[in-house]
Design brief:
This is YlxR family protein. By secondary structure, this protein is of the alpha+beta class. It has 3 helices and 5 strands; from the N terminus they run βββββααα.
Length: 83
């Protein structure tokens, strides 16, 4: 049985393998492709809709329990390059 996680963008439950784990490195949002980076993680579908909804609702800040703003520019550019 595969673990199930909740997408912070659309709030839908999905298998862990279909979601992208996101962590913070200081105050920078980083995509954790292999889901092995240390720290608290948030899970999101790799679609523009889910990512933009999560960014708009500040879901990453809440899920990762970060105080202050997050730098999302690197994360957004990484996702745009992937397609």
């Amino acid at each position: 049985m595969e673990p199930v996680r909740t997408c912070v963008g659309c709030r839908a439950r999905a298998p862990r393998s279909s979601l992208l784990r996101v962590v913070t490195d200081g105050s920078v949002l980083v995509a954790d492709e292999r889901a092995v980076l240390p720290g608290r993680g948030a899970w999101v579908h790799e679609t523009d809709a889910c990512v933009s909804k999560a960014l708009t609702r500040r879901a990453f800040v809440r899920a990762l329990r970060v105080s202050g703003p997050l730098d999302t520019q690197t994360f957004e550019s990484t996702l745009q390059r992937k397609g």
